[in-house]
Amino acid sequence: xxxxxxxxxxxxxxxxxxxxxxxxxxxxxxxxxxxxxxxxxxxxxxxxxxxxxxxxxxxxxxxxxxxxxxxxxxxxxxxxxxxxxxxxxxxxxxxxxxxxxxxxxxxxxxxxxxxxxxxxxxx
Length: 123
Hints:
Blueprint: H1 2-18, E1 25-30, E2 34-40, E3 50-54, E4 57-68, E5 71-83, E6 94-98, E7 101-107
Antiparallel strand pairs: 1-2, 2-7, 3-4, 4-5, 6-7
């Protein structure tokens, strides 16, 4: 019952926080070599932003520290979460900070021009 109560308190706190959070500025740019995601989150220090790949999902988020029932909890605030397309080389995704914004580079792989192959029919 205590964990359920902590969860309800956390959800209530997040709802309250959402009214006071600034919206992130996100843009996606395509080039001949790949895709870039540019993100600027007003009021959030660059050290707080995190980029992670889990089960082919690219997530960009930061943690919001808050107290609930006297305990410090870190609630994730998702800025971007999408499946990585088949034409992106997931193992070469990189992130840097440029001009006060997070830039995540997603390079194309050989499948970006489509995959074509003649199939021999046996029998």
